[in-house]
Amino acid sequence: MRAQTAKEPALITVDFTLFPVGPGNRVLDLGCGGGRHAFEIYRRGADVVAFDQNENDLADVATMFTAMRSEGEAPGGAEAETVKGDALDMPFDDASFDRVVAAEIMEHIPHDTAAMAELYRVLKPGGIAAVTVPSWLPERICWALSEEYHTNEGGHIRIYTRAELEAKLKATGFEIGPHHHAHALHAPYWWIKCAVGTDNDTHPLASAYHRMLVWDMFTSPRVTRIAERLLNPLIGKSVVVYLRKPRGEGAG
User: Fold this and answer.
1) Which of these, 14, 72, 117, 146, is most buried using a 10 Å CB contact count?
2) Hey, where are the domains in the chain?
3) CATH architecture observed for domain 26-184+234-244
4) How far from 153 is each of 109, 112, 157, 219, CA to CA, in Å?
5) How far is CA 135 from CA 138, 140, 141, 143, 183, in A?
6) Quick check: 140 and 235 in contact, CB under 8 A?
7) According to the model, what pLDDT value does residue 151 have?
């Protein structure tokens, strides 16, 4: 999809009723990519750090932050910045953040438990994290349809069950909270892409489905919202797990 502009909707995976952010919170968007969650966090008045190792993505995110400031899309007191670095060795002090989002990043990292430990380290005691990864069933279908999907450089290197993800996070020290699935309407799009070629954006079926997804993002009709809500537990493209760092951990 093309780059988002300041007033366009973004594909948000995290439920901000379960992950409240606002003025006074410092939030890390770990592996921010195009910045979709960082922008929403900024709009809600929190101070946000968009962290990634891709300089091109970070440049686009910084440009968006500037546009949001100039268009009044974020409260005046909120701050937003980009930081380049490695998820396994982040340049932040212990307990630096009130909240951390790690959206669709753990499936890319060979040493995922080391990344989880870093996430835990930079989160304040009592702080909340939201970790999202591709759901097992939709991802398994993608892998079955296309070897290219999971063997290209920087692609997905593992498929998580929710139980496995939660077990690794619990072993890191987190208290496991609620979970949900998201983006069921996007799963068939990726199945189509895997079937016709992940780089084949001009295939009529893939192109038509993509137009439908863009239309849905802009209009959010009631019928598709209901359909996605019903389908999410079955074929939601992503699973989101909410976590808390114990309050006594690292206190003082």
Assistant:
1) 14
2) 26-184+234-244
3) 3-Layer(aba) Sandwich (3.40)
4) 12, 17, 10, 35
5) 6, 8, 10, 12, 10
6) no
7) 82
CA 234 – CA 237 distance, rounded (Å): 9
Phi, psi (5° rounding) for residue 113? -70, -30
**pLDDT at residue 249, as a whole number:** 60
At position 209, the amino acid (one-letter code) is Y
**What's the rounded Cα separation, in Å, for the pair 178 and 129?**
11
Residue 205, C-beta contacts closer than 8 angstroms, at least 6 positions apart: 192, 196
Using DSSP bridges, classify how beta strands 175-182 and 238-244 pair: parallel, antiparallel or unpaired.
Answer: antiparallel
SS (H, E, C) 45-89: CCEEEEEECCHHHHHHHHHHHHHHHHCCCCCCCCCEEEEECECCE
- Mean of the per-residue pLDDT values for the chain? 93
What CA–CA distance (Å, rounded) separates 170 from 110?
A: 19
For 83, the token pair is 């930081």
Residue 201 confidence (pLDDT) above 90: no
Query: Are the beta carbons of 191 and 145 closer than 8 angstroms?
Result: yes
